[in-house]
Amino acid sequence: MLPSHLRYVFFEDDGTLLVIVAKDLLIEHVEVMMGTLKKHIKALVWSISDIIGIPPSICTDKIQLSDECKPSIGHQRRLNPPIVPFEILWDANGVALGAVLGQHKNKLFHPIYYASKTLNCAQKNNTVAEQELVVVVYRFEKLKAYLWALK
Description:
single chain; alpha+beta; three-stranded antiparallel sheet; two-stranded antiparallel ribbon; 4 helices
């Protein structure tokens, strides 16, 4: 079932090769688009046998089972270890701001990354609440690679 803003258009008159288009497209636009698609049909519709130099027999997997083998379903093992949540501590004291990324293990905090920055003159004139907001932005800028597992 398609969303209400889309519809099917058949590429061939025999009802094969569906194309999904916007429902509000004018008939003329659909006809122009279908003409362009038909002109480039070789780029759109192909099979593995169309690739020169690769015999289709290479691309088929065959699993040979002996007669005494019985199919069974085994439970999948969990490969990923449990994830320990990260914790971010931050502070702004009117002169500088800092952020620490770490994890609690066995009731101890283990720092992973530390970032600090001295406030400029304009930031020093901010209220404490505004300085805390600056450190929130700063911590995400500095720690985003760790938070999104990029490092």
